[in-house]
Design a protein that fits this description.
The chain has helices at residues 2-25, 165-168, 280-286, 332-335, 400-411, and strands spanning 47-48, 55-68, 70-71, 74-75, 92-108, 111-124, 138-148, 151-156, 186-196, 199-206, 215-217, 241-250, 253-264, 299-310, 320-329, 340-345, 348-353, 357-359, 366-367, 369-382, 385-397, 424-436, 442-454, 475-476, 479-491. It is mainly β and 494 residues long. The strands form 4 sheets. The protein has a 16-stranded antiparallel beta barrel.
Amino acid sequence: MRMVKSLLLGTAAGFVALAGAQAADLPVKAKPVQYVKICDLYGAGYFYVPGTETCIKLGGYVRFNTYYNNTSGTVYTNGGFGRFNNAETKDVTTRARVYLTGDVRSQTSFGTLRSYYAVQIQNPTGNANGVGTGSAATVNIIRGFIQFAGFTIGRSTSLTDTPDAFSSLTSGGWTAVGGTTGPTGINVIQYTAQFGNGFSASIGLEDSDQRDRAVYNMSNLAFPGTDASSSGASIGSTVPEITANLDVTQAWGSARIVGAVHNVRAAYYSGPAGAAFGNCAGLAAAYPGNEACGRPSDKWGYFIGAGFTITAIPGMPGDLFGVSGGYADGASAYGVGFGAINMFKDNKVTYGFAPDGVYDNRSGIQTTKSWWVSAAYQHAWTPNLKTSIYGAYTGVDFNKKAQDIIAPAVCGAGVPVSQCNPDYSYWLVGSRIFNWTPVQNLDIGLDIVYWKFNSAFKGANNGFVPGGPYTTIKKAGDNDVWYANLQITRSFWP
């Protein structure tokens, strides 16, 4: 009996020891996991950064384009973009783009602190005139700004961008109309005051680099028929762009009135390269009354514009309609998207330029006037199938004194302005034949557009000598072009 008792006690002790050893091997209890939480303060798609009160939304899209008669959304018009200048030019080009965005917000005692970025990575095929096997990929910061207490600082859109149904309803080519900064952004310091009920007013200082156009000295042309871009350009504004707008956004849509002031600054007076008066003394002797090695006095250009978009048309859900337009004097980048047109087709050249101003060695700056108007309408056949039509017109005008300076420089001495008028215009009509959304966040669209370019320098200027590789003498005249764009976009923002 004593032996059985000892055996039972020994077995019990063994179990206790084994249980203790197993308990010692158990893992330490893990800390609670911080799961991602939805942030509903700023709309759909935001979530809290774990461990913080900061909300973030990530988004973007992947896009593929196939173009006919244009490249990367730009119709063939300028210099190397002269689609019809030689037999090697591609008819069809393509582009792949990745667009990544991030929106970070948090609440402070001064209101919402926001930072936003958008990075664009793309790789088009073909170089400027479509020749070659491909172009290098480009990476651009399209947006990168901070918003705090009414201020926007960084790379954003200009205060002069109007609510523009035209640009939102066409896939490429529209950057030649007006001076919208939507595709690229611009560096800004802006302040916006909110008045309630959707009304606001803003004022800002914006980087002038994207707004500076050439101020040409027409005395620098070495011989008639030369591209005016060889005549010397602006030395750049010394004052940032001063911009402002009044804006209203309500249930029916949005409207905006905009304005800007632009510093117009020319380079020094000078003569053609290698000319006898290529120095200060020679220049002063050749042109008495001009300060030797001086330059014309600065001028101030300006831009005014307006636009509206109606997004709630009674009885027509999904339809929208918009009109926008603007007028610039000495601020051509706001009024016309093309700085110059050199379009070669059918043994003709359509040539025109839109500088901020022109002058010669006997004059001050003569500012250039430009204006544009655009309109667009979208109809929704179903929530997933839409069609849009759109059109735009742009004009460039030079005053009488500017015409008198330009005519002999471009067309030759003795040619009257009536036969060498630099005023020109272009217009377009087009349609996004369809924009189909077969599934959520996947859009497939096809645009077909017709452009008409009305040539400057008609009449006596029929011996125009193109520069660079274009050695064939061509006659000046009007030109036109059809182009198409098939665009497929997969968005992945909420």
